[in-house]
Amino acid sequence: MNWNHLLSRTRPGLPHPHPDNEARTDFQRDFDRIVFSSAFRRLQDKTQVFPLSRSDYVRTRLTHSLEVSSVGRSLGTMVGDSVIKNHDLKGVYPQDFGAAVAAACLAHDIGNPPFGHAGEDAIRLWFARSPTGQQALEPLSESQRQDLLNFEGNAQGFRIITRLQSPDNPGGMQLTCATLGAFTKYPRASWLPADPPPGIAFKKFGFYQDDAALFAETAQQLGLESTLPGAWSRHPLAYLVEAADDICYRIIDVEDAFRLQQLPFDQVRDLLLPLTGEAHRAERKMAHITRTREKIEYLRAKAIGAIIDQAHQCFMDHEDAILAGTLQEELLDIIPAAAAMRALKECGEAQIYISRPVVEVEAAGFEVLGGLLETFVTTVNDLAAHGSQASPKSRMLIHLIPEPFAGPGRCPVDDPYRRVLAITDFVSGMTDSYAVALFKKLTGISLPTG
Predict the structure, then answer these.
(1) Could you give all domains of the chain from N- to C-terminal order, each with its CATH number?
(2) Is the pTM of this model over 0.90?
(3) Are the C-beta atoms of residues 36 and 14 closer than 8 Å to each other?
């Protein structure tokens, strides 16, 4: 892979590129398109760690995405500066790298369903265990079945930015290929004819069968190598998007847990101090800070800055392997502070993500998402099979499904894969609060008032 191709400004669906404008680059346009999209706005009511939190301090997916984007811009700009000097690249600037990474980071969670990762599990479980879900899978190909049985927020995100948002445009939001490549952390389909290559880039999948042709077109523009049918080498900037996300969620989740009194000050301090790279100096600074929450905020800022520096150096140390598509680890696993970052992750898994408030709401999410899928998949399949002879309930419920997901004129499409995939688009795109409210109304737990 080479950087001239990897920074392609081509936009899928647009036959001609925008004229050059140094005041507002193509990658800055990508960022702006994402910010103003309705899919991005919905992240304000989607779970980060603490679902439906009543605290106005705790991060949502929206604030998390903004923070990741800020880290990604810094990291991308630093890497861009080094890459340009090392390769003597012309006509490209460090800020171009930073803007492309920032845009990809901004969208990195745009495909997450309600209730976060528990929501992904809920959708997978419904297709695997529900009789209605299993019946819906029967007429599908193996690759189509795997898309639904392994529902993946990353693949849903690619689908949103290239198809569901601005659906009348070929290519959806028509982001640049460079931003799409940086966004796609897992450049493979859900089903492959052989075992996927080893390494972090193929741990999950990044696009559905319905969107495979568009990703193949993007990969060709970027010069990504196809390792086997349905899988490509990872875009180098995707390593930076992954690092920015991990830096934020590992460090900030413990800060949020401290603010919610789920972790004590001493424990959080001891987790963050080793990340600063200058623990003694940090301790001296904290001695002059009065409030404990501001001490943790100071440590969080110092830790993020230090890990950004380490991730930048790590990327440059392994640039040859990254461009060859052979780096199998994520950057944060091979930086000097890898053990301290791993301790943060282990703390989250052992104490934060299984805390009672988190588990109670996520458990309810299984009922909510499973119930919505049961209702709406039954509705569209009944109407597709029986038309005007479908049950009165189905003919009524179809009006609760927006037309882009119900089918033209609210007549479900004949293709069983696209029909069911459209319902997962609808349900996974809901906010936490909307999903709960709609489920309550459909089950009679609450009724709309006049």
Answers:
(1) 114-145+357-450 (1.10.3550.10), 237-352 (1.10.3410.10)
(2) yes
(3) no
